[in-house]
Amino acid sequence: MGKIVFAGAMSHVLDPDYYDAACGPVGRRKVEDVMEAIRQMGARLAARSPDALIVVADDHLNAFSFNAVPALCVRIGTTVSRMVQEDAEAFDKVLEDMPLTYPLHEALANQILEQGLASGFDLALSWEAPLDHAFLSPVNTLCGARPIPPLVPIWVNCFVAPQPTARRCFDFGRHIARVVAGSPWNVGIIATGGLSHFPELLVARVGESDTVFDRKILHWLEHGEHEPLCRLSADELHKSGEHEFLNWMVLIGALTPARADIRYFGELGRINLAAVEWRVE
Amino acid sequence: MSRYAVNSLLYRLKKDREFRARFSTDPRAVLADADLTEAERAAFLARDMRRINELGGYLHLVLSIPGLAVH
């Protein structure tokens, strides 16, 4: 019987140079601190020798265009490439030093997809979508020089309204837990993004974050109180800059009712950085 | 309709280097057939990404178009 052996969620722009330019030396210091917390989480992940690593993250209009914006999408196939952006700006630049291709856990991805469709989740699938920083910054920071486990990338549409609801993401996470339990594999799962940044997705509000909202969320995670999280509305998430928390909701559904430990939380104005790990044993 | 036109234009500016170069050289010609409102057209001609965002351009696109990104 399979098992989730590691679960963590973390911010996903993990680039000291980006935060140095955007926020000054304090930005560099805080992102280096959160990256160190993520590296320590990665050592615990590696110690549990996962057969696969599920990565739940969002697209920033990189993998998908306006030709299709899936609410929930499972990447299938045997390998996945990182996104290549010519003349990259901002958070696209961090990808440039990362490996170009990554192995996928094809069988687990197919089971999540096939059993999902059979049980009421109308999931999209992709054989070709590349991965941007939302996936690869956390994965590379977690794994460092160690081999990267076969991945199962899953996209949640966090930004292009209308998004899936928090409760739907949670329910999808419960589906993932059922698939893993019925499989022969030990599986790690991470969710990325956040915490609060870019409220209302307006340039005018870049530089703001909602720390009160973040602390409320973290309190619920520490205490395993997941029902209030499921009730978060699209409007609340939009106004507070918590769009990417939908990725976390998938992981929470997979782990509920487990409690979480806050490994790092740092206010930075432009974004609040976080690293959180769930108690899986 | 305009919202789609704004964002598909932003997406192409990000992903298509040749299109981006043509826009840089002669934005009026590039925008000639685009289905934009006058306000949207003016914002693109002014390369005013903040205004484009206010008019419905997705934040992550206006933050990441090479050479045009607002920070």
Topology:
The complex is a heterodimer of chains A (281) and B (71).
Chain A (H helix, E strand, L loop, with lengths): L2 E8 L5 H8 L1 H23 L4 E7 L13 E4 L3 E3 L19 E3 L2 H13 L5 E3 L6 H11 L7 E6 L9 H16 L4 E7 L18 H12 L4 H4 L3 H7 L4 H11 L4 E8 L4 E7 L3
Parallel strand pairs in A: 1-8, 2-7, 2-8, 3-6
Antiparallel strand pairs in A: 1-10, 3-7, 4-5, 9-10
Chain B lengths: L1 H14 L1 H9 L1 H5 L6 H8 L3 H6 L4 H4 L9
Helix pairs in contact in B: 1-2
Task: Provide an overview of this structure.
The complex is a heterodimer of chains A (281) and B (71). Chain A is α/β, with parallel strands linked by helices. Helices cover 37% and strands 20% of the residues of chain A. Chain A is built from 9 helices and 10 strands. Chain A has an 8-stranded mixed sheet with strand order 6-3-7-2-8-1-10-9, sandwiched between helices. A two-stranded antiparallel sheet of chain A has the order 4-5. The relative contact order of chain A is 0.22. In chain B, helix 1 (2-15) crosses helix 2 (17-25). Chain B is globular, with a radius of gyration of 11 Å. Chain B is an all-alpha fold. The longest helix of chain B has 14 residues, at 2-15. Classes of the chains: A alpha/beta (281), B mainly alpha (71). At the A-B interface, loops of A face helix 1, helix 5 and helix 6 of B.
The major sheet of chain B is characterized as:
none
If interface size is counted as residues with C-beta under 8 Å from the partner's C-beta, which chains form the largest one? A-B, 22 and 24 residues
Helix and strand element order of chain B: HHHHHH
Number of helices of chain B: 6
- How far apart, in Å, are the first and last alpha carbons of chain A? 15 Å
Shape of chain A: globular
How helical, in percent, are the residues of chain A? 25-40%
Mean pLDDT over the full residue set of chain A: 96
Counted by DSSP, the helix tally of chain A is 9
| Outline type of chain B | globular
The neighbouring-strand order within the major sheet of chain A is 6-3-7-2-8-1-10-9
Strand content of chain B: under 5%
Q: What is the quaternary state of this protein? A: heterodimer
Query: What class would the helix/strand composition of chain A place it in?
Result: alpha/beta
Q: Segments of chain A where pLDDT lies below 50 for 5+ residues?
A: none
Please provide the count of β strands of chain B.
0
Q: Note poorly predicted spans of chain B.
A: none
Integer-rounded radius of gyration of chain A: 17 Å
